[in-house]
Amino acid sequence: MRTIGEAAVHLGIEAHVLRHWEQVGALSVRRDGNGYRIFDDSALEQARTVQRLRSVGLSLPEVTAAMAPVKSEAQAVVAQKIAALEGEVLARQQAITFLQHTLDCRHRYVDDCEDCATFVREA
C-alpha cells in the first residue's frame, strides 16, 4: 500500500498526474477511511498501463476507452489507433522517399526534376 506521493515517486511521475488520471476516469483508486488514496498493487498496475498506453500515443480519452470493461469497445479504440499510426508510418515513409530522392537527385533544383515534381503532385 502506498500513498499518492509514494506511488508517484515509484512510477516516476507527479502526484497531480495521478489525480488527473483518476478525475478523467483512466484510473480507479480506492480510498481509506479518511478519504486518502491508497495505491495497492492493482492500482499501481493500472497506472503503469495508463503510462504505457500514453507512451504509445493514446490520448487520455482513448486510454480510458481502451481500458473499458467491455473488450469489444476497448479493441475498437485500439484498432482505430493502429490504423492512425499505420497512416502516419506511410506518410513518413513517403516523406523519406521524397527527401532521399532530393538528396540523391542529379538536378540542382527540385523544380528541374520530373521525379521530384511527381512527388510534389502526389502529395
Architecture blueprint of SSEs:
Layout: H1 4-11, H2 15-24, E1 30-31, E2 37-38, H3 41-55, H4 60-66, H5 71-104, H6 114-122
Antiparallel strand pairs: 1-2
Helix pairs in contact: 1-2
Can you put this structure into words, describing what you see?
The structure is a single chain. This protein is mainly alpha-helical. It folds into two domains: 58 residues, Multidrug-efflux Transporter Regulator, Chain: A, Domain 2; 56 residues. Helix content is 67%, strand content 3%. The chain contains six helices and two strands. The chain has a two-stranded antiparallel sheet. Strand 1 and strand 2 form a beta hairpin. Helix 1 crosses helix 2. The longest helix has 34 residues. It is elongated, with a radius of gyration of 23 Å. It starts with a helix and ends with a helix. The model has no long low-confidence stretch (mean pLDDT 90).
Put the structure in a nutshell.
This protein is 67% helix and 3% strand.
Output the CATH topology of the largest domain: Multidrug-efflux Transporter Regulator, Chain: A, Domain 2
Mean pLDDT: 90
Number of domain modules: 2
Count the DSSP helices: 6
Total beta strands: 2
CATH class of the largest domain: Mainly Alpha
Q: DSSP strand (E) fraction?
A: under 5%
**End-to-end span in angstroms?**
54 Å
Query: Architecture of the largest domain, according to CATH?
Result: Orthogonal Bundle
